[in-house]
Every structure is written in C-alpha cells, then in structure tokens.
Amino acid sequence: MTEQQLNATVHRLTRDHRTSHTDCDTGKTSYPTEMALFTQLRQEITSSSRPSTGASSGPRSPVALGAVVLWDEIRETLATMHIAITGKDEPATSPESKLQKWAAWTQADTSGNETQKCLHRATAWAAAIDQLINPVRRIDISGSCPAEGCGVSHAWTWDEDEYVRNTALTASGSEARCGACGATWVGAELHTLALELWKVAA
Ligand SMILES: [Zn+2]
Prior knowledge:
202 residues, 2 domains, two-stranded antiparallel sheet, binds zinc ion
C-alpha cells in the first residue's frame, strides 16, 4: 500500500502524468496530461524571474519567492539523501533521478520505515507545490488519519514560504486529504471518513 503510494507520488513529482478532471457543469470527466510537479515548480521560478520590459530588477512575486525556497529545500534534501545512499555527491544528477533512486532504494528496507520516510517527504512536497501553484482554501479537520499505518493527527505543510504545523487532515470542496500519508477521500468516501473520525471521538 505504502509502496504504491510512494511510486504514485514520485511519478507525479518527476514525470508528466495523467490527471482526471470533472467538469462542474457537465459532469464529464476528462484526463488531461499534467507536467511533472518538479517541472511546474521550476517554471514558476523561471517565468517570474525573467526580466520584464523596462525595469531590470523588479520585485519577485510572493509565489516565485515561495517556489525558490521550496525548490532549494527539495534539492538540498535530495542531495543529502543521494550522498547518504550512494556515497557520491554527483551534483550533475537531476533532482528527479535522485528522488527516483531514493524511492527505489527504500524497497531494500523490509521494515517499511524508509519507504514511509520517503513517502512523507514526497507527499509534503507534492502538496506544497500544488498549494503554491493552485492555491485553494483548505479547512482543518481535527482527529487522527484513519488510513492504515498512518494515524497521524498533525503534519508539516508548506504555507506561504515556510513550513507550518497543521492538522494532518484537511478538506477543500468535495475532497479531503491527509498531509502526512497522502491518502485522499473523494465524494462518498467523505462520509466514510466522517464515520471513522466520529467512531474514534465517541
Ligand atoms: Zn494519513
């Protein structure tokens, strides 16, 4: 389960991927291809640092600043992990391939702890990039995540340009998600989630 989640998250971060989009008006679902989240984050940085006509050094938008800080953090973490795993620095190796190698390496740990660690990091990055590029208001849900092997009530999430400790479970529109393990509940599943939370609280 965790391994599948990790593969899916690493895929979203490092490769172009299919997403599903349901049109609110027609109810029709389409499957557009979305760029890798790392690519989107890099584009966010380059598109807003391009000199605009006239002014040579205009102030950067808050989104671009957040993107720079986040991208630095991702690259540093991946560089550190890469050295820890391979014993080599290899600055020319892309962050994409460093993350893929890290994820593949965790499979050697049968306890699953390393997979969990990598998953938590990758999930936090994916959520942070999503939030940076398509900011949506999320509502905090108190309680522990009922997903198997998670049970976390708080998680570090990226907000503005810093990590903040929030409730692990948040909701926006008709979707809820755990910021720690990446589990999501959509539509009717929200009802199941509410029941799980209510059971524990009762
Ligand atoms: Zn969770």
